[in-house]
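Checklist before submission:
- one chain only
- standard amino acids only
- sequence pasted in full

Submission:
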Amino acid sequence: MRALVKGGADPRAQENRKYDTVTIAAVADDLATMKVALEIGGSARDITSVYTGTALIAAAHLGHDEVVKELIRAGAPLDHVNNLHWTALIEAVILGDGGPRHTECVRALVAAGARRDLADRDGITPLEHARRRGYAEMVRLMQ
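Returned file contents:
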């Protein structure tokens, strides 16, 4: 990756699904590669994917907690709303399994200041989604 960028490649280029190097590494739960992507000029702030999301939303959806923490440190937008009308916090709850890694994503997002009042298109907040699913620890973290 470093050699390609040194040779003129764009570290923020997107492939046909609109994923960039940061998002690809985030989805793969590859923290080391994602850190390199950020070091060579990739951005945690870019809007990526056909869902007009971010690497943070994708990582939270998948429960990639260490990647989520690194993206937060790198300045990822905490409250970006994708075209499904979901934020990273919403995705960690509704697409998560309520297990330890998704819960840690919720913990990191809340600690970083992610808005808990941003509801989905049906007006349901992440807290209410967690309640409905019986995710007690997530509920506690968001109260």
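Reviewer check: Residues 100-112 form the longest helix (13 residues).
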